[in-house]
Amino acid sequence: MKEGNNENIETENLTIIPPNTPEIYATIGASFSTPFNIRLLLFNDEIVKSEEYLVERHIPTVRNAKCELVLHPQVAESIANLLLKEVEKYKKDFCEPVENSSN
């Protein structure tokens, strides 16, 4: 094989997801960037258990940061594209308009 010839090089990627990987239900996110990376914060809103909300008709919640992802800009772009594709697939599969049955 000639030096610099990458035609015969094969790589194998193995993805392992351990069964105890935490699942985070995010209700909102925030992002910001530095000259070196892009950061994504994921939050979860939790209801504060209180009897006051029954009287005031206001449900008090607390927003907790659950996760911060620190990403190289190229990785952030790749994940953004992946999420956009998944959202489009979700809309196509689960959000089809319901036909009007009165016609």
Apparent shape: extended
Q: Helix amount, in percent?
A: 25-40%
Q: Please tell me how large the radius of gyration is.
A: 22 Å
Please count the beta strands (DSSP E, at least 2 residues each).
3
Oligomer type? single chain
Distance between the termini: 70 Å
Order of helices and strands: EEHEH
Protein name: DUF3467 domain-containing protein
Organism: Candidatus Methanobinarius endosymbioticus
Question: What is the topological layout?
Answer:
Blueprint: E1 28-33, E2 38-47, H1 52-56, E3 61-71, H2 73-94
Antiparallel strand pairs: 1-2, 2-3
Organism: Candidatus Methanobinarius endosymbioticus
Protein name: DUF3467 domain-containing protein
Describe this protein's structure:
This protein has two helices and three strands; from the N terminus they run E-E-H-E-H. The longest helix is centred in the last third of the chain and has 22 residues, at 73-94. A hairpin with a 4-residue loop joins strand 1 and strand 2 (38-47). The model has no long low-confidence stretch (mean pLDDT 83). The chain has a domain at 28-94. By secondary structure, the chain is an alpha+beta fold. The radius of gyration is 22 Å and the shape is extended. Strands 1-2-3 form a three-stranded antiparallel beta sheet. It has helices at 52-56, 73-94, and strands at residues 28-33, 38-47, 61-71.
